[in-house]
Design goal:
- The protein has a 6-stranded antiparallel beta barrel with strand order 2-3-9-6-5-10.
- Strand 6 (92-101) and strand 7 form a beta hairpin.
- It has 2 domains: 29-148, no CATH class; 149-205.
- It is of the alpha+beta class and 205 residues long.
- The protein is built from 6 helices and 10 strands, in the order αβαβββββββββαααα.
- The protein is elongated.
- The chain starts with a helix and ends with a helix.
Amino acid sequence: MKSNRHVYAVLLALCLALQSLAQIQKANPTTPLPVAVATGKARVSIHGTGASSGDSVKIDVSKGPNAPPGEQILTIPPGTVLENSNSAGQGMVVAEVRGRVVSESMYEPASRIELAGKGVVTYILSAFCMEFEKENPSNTDSFDIRTPDPKLACILKNSSKLSVPTRQAAVWIHTDHVTYDQMSQKFPVTVEEFNQGQALVDRCQ
């Protein structure tokens, strides 16, 4: 009898915990960042970090004039395009949110952007260059957020566990039809990584 009461108590506690989580998620629904920016729920300032791939974009985010009260949770869909304001520099495509910046050299891991107050929060994004013939973005380049590209979204969703060179190869193969010889002269990549990138592109056609 005691054992049955113990099992019942555990199940009841689990049900209450799940109910509480569902209520929290309902109270704080997520909004894709491009939608939040377009509807005035968020303001952003997006800059390069000086890198061409991987942790290469820094984004400052704050609530916009149409932001709802309370905490606001924003997501950035894989494949979201960032248009470079510098016409000589490459545009970027976002793979995922990496973390919230806590100091000049550190960030704490996070997969989404959380806005609680009126201040600005800064996050690091994993992103990849998408215009092979142009210059790599500098840390002074700024970007405007655009809607996701479906094929790039597929490539980046299916490559989260692969290397940075593989993911960059896949993006350039899709956007610029680069060959291994072209890419290897500009970016360190192995034949195996390039072939993995080509396989990703083929899978997402």
